[in-house]
Amino acid sequence: MISLNVNRHNYEVDVDPDMPLLWVIRDVLGLTGTKYGCGVAQCGACTVHLNGEAVRSCVTKVKRAEGQKIITIEGLSETNNHPLQQAWAEIDVPQCGYCHSGQLMSAAVLLRENPHPTDKDIDDAMAGNICRCGTYLRIRKAIHLAAEMQQKGS
Length: 154
Fold this sequence. Notes:
The protein is an alpha+beta fold.
């Protein structure tokens, strides 16, 4: 059995320790907001937080996550009121929406580490997240809006 803390809830899972964390999150725990994109950590669709760090869950073995704090898109906020979620909705960022849970999780780490990002900061931080629909300008605009919302809220 492997002990996991996902979205502030404890779980015991009986899986192969080498199983990718993504499949434990989706198939074992039933949290399907985290998406499978490429399986080789190149697209960012599977991004989750592991102790506050953005990681690609498709290549992170569940044994690495044991005893760590894991946050998925479902745990970013309890009521979907995280400034990024509000900004994403206000700007109407997603087109198909498939990549956006990973986009949001990467952006959340960026804003935590840099509450006043420039366009370059955003582009650099988000470079590992691919959007096939090309919503990059809306993503950048929403991150700036979320940064403003965070400033007003603090």
